[in-house]
Design brief:
Pnp Oxidase, Chain A; alpha+beta; single chain; three-stranded antiparallel beta sheet; 25% helix; 12 strands
Length: 184
């Protein structure tokens, strides 16, 4: 039996996306029963007017029901040292146990990872079902920043991080501005 065109394209798309490095985050919320969390790489900024984020969640995931009913959710951007948090929230732990390997607190109605590189708390304002997933749109309500920029990265099915000698973005931006001034 041969694969359909959609199946072939899905397989090719998965292979292509293994080459796209993504920052790792844990999306967290509180439903009517308890705190819930899920590791995600399908997150992004949507707009800065108003500040808003998107999170894509598979409708078959247990987390889908929780975020669907939650008024707020948090995007916790992980540091390179937080692989265990990612693994726990990615399926190695269940329910409240996903919160056991790190310190969390409530912020504006959503659980946030205290020492995440950053956490962005959003009001759950809109959703779009497409294919197997729902895209949740959250309006930013609160932002917390912690420590230096040193993200946990996921690429080709593995965790990685920036090399120690990576040039900080602020240095690159300064160099770009200098080159622009010299070109004038």
């Amino acid at each position: 039996m041969s694969a359909t065109l959609d199946e072939q394209l899905a397989a090719q798309t998965k292979r292509a996306l293994r080459r796209l490095a993504s920052g790792v985050a844990v999306v967290s919320c509180r439903d009517e029963r308890a705190r819930q969390a899920m590791t995600a790489t399908a997150i992004n900024a949507m707009s800065m007017q108003p500040p808003s984020m998107i999170v894509c969640v598979n409708r078959a995931a247990g987390f889908h029901a929780a975020i669907s009913s939650a008024g707020r959710f948090a995007i916790n951007i992980l540091h390179r040292s937080q692989i265990e948090v990612s693994k726990g929230c990615g399926g190695e732990a269940r329910g409240e146990d996903r919160f056991g390997s790190a310190a969390w607190r409530d912020e504006s109605g959503a659980p946030v990872l205290i020492d995440a590189q950053a956490h962005v708390v959003c009001a759950n304002e809109a959703r779009l079902d497409y294919g197997s997933h729902t895209i949740f749109v959250g309006r930013v309500m609160f932002v917390g920043i912690h420590g230096e920029i040193d993200p946990l990265i996921y690429v080709d099915g593995k965790y990685t991080c920036l090399p120690p000698d990576a040039v900080p973005a602020s240095v690159l931006q300064t160099e770009i501005e200098l080159m622009r001034q010299l070109a004038m």
